[in-house]
Design a protein that fits this description.
The chain is of the alpha/beta class. The chain contains eleven helices and eleven strands. The relative contact order is 0.15.
């Protein structure tokens, strides 16, 4: 019998003053698995992750949906706040703004280590820094003394300090050069190999290709397609997933950008939000959001999925 997912989200809806920004999103991730969440900016990827820990910006709220963590209902905001640290760690997109510039890296890690003696906290801090590829001496340095890649690794050590079973990563390589970013992604693969459940939000499809696990393609707050990474990359079934992959640079071929823009909240059709950019759209697409359909483990929300 398969164990319960570490995190399971069902029917999530997030609303802003302008309208619904995330609609009927369902995601799950198991121990030792990486779930890559992809899509253009403004599609609701970061908001979905922030909602897990009740960290939505002011003015936004979860108006529908359930959250389960290790099989337990954690839908109440207070329950999700309690997950911070020991239940789930989060790596933010900009470590320079997430780290406190006043305190050393070691101090910020040790804040997460309760119930240990001073010597034990020091040793655990050194272990965490080694785990993310940093020397223990980094504990005595302030964030401004570190490079971008070192800051991101320090942020990862803080996120892991509570020994959480779940790691949420919000575009952790965006501000890094490709070599350093690749090292961070390799570290995430290693962590998943040790049993962590990892949710990776990214724009980098080349990074996604190198990841084991599954991917979820979000568009304008809706999950358009979800399935094993290798399957979706090789044979996407939703026109939006296909368009994203076709827009990637390829040797000897010019990229094919997607015409149009992601519709903002308040201007999205009741049906498929990709309707006004899709070359396969029919009238039903504008008015009816199709339910998820497909074989076990790979589904698509489309009236006219690709073969």
């Amino acid at each position: 019998m398969e164990s319960a997912p570490i995190l399971e989200i069902e029917g999530l809806e997030i609303t802003a003053p302008a309208g619904v920004v995330v609609r009927d999103v369902s995601l799950r991730v198991h121990a030792g698995e990486i779930l890559c969440v992809v899509g253009e900016s403004g599609c609701g990827k970061s908001l979905t992750a922030l909602s897990v820990l009740d960290l939505l910006p002011s003015g936004l709220s979860c108006t529908r949906g359930t959250f389960r963590f290790q099989g337990r209902d954690m839908s109440a905001p207070s329950e999700r706040r309690a997950l911070r640290g020991r239940g789930a760690g989060m790596i933010f997109q900009e470590p320079a703004t997430a780290l406190n510039p006043v305190y050393t890296v070691g101090f910020q890690i040790r804040e997460m280590l309760s119930g240990l003696s001073r010597a034990e906290r020091k040793e655990r801090t050194a272990q965490l820094l080694r785990m993310v590829g940093l020397e223990p001496s980094v504990a005595e340095r302030h964030p401004h003394e570190l490079s971008g890649g070192m800051k991101q690794r320090a942020m990862m050590a803080i996120a892991l300090a509570g020994n959480p079973p779940l790691l949420l990563c919000d575009e952790p390589t965006t501000a890094l050069d490709p070599t350093v970013g690749a090292a961070i992604l390799s570290q995430l693969r290693d962590l998943a190999g040790r049993g962590l459940a990892v949710v990776l939000i990214t724009h980098d499809f080349h990074a996604v290709r190198r990841m084991p696990g599954r991917m979820s393609v979000l568009y304008a707050g809706v999950v358009a397609e979800e399935g094993p990474i290798a399957d979706v990359m090789a044979q996407p079934r939703h026109p939006y997933a296909r368009a994203l992959i076709d827009a990637l640079p390829q040797a000897g071929k010019p990229p094919r950008p997607i015409a149009g823009q992601v519709p903002p909240p308040g201007r999205r059709p009741p049906g498929c939000p990709f309707f006004n950019r899709c070359t396969r759209a029919v009238p039903a697409c504008e008015n009816v959001l199709p339910p998820p359909a497909g074989e076990e483990g790979h589904f698509v929300r489309c009236h006219r999925p690709l073969a």
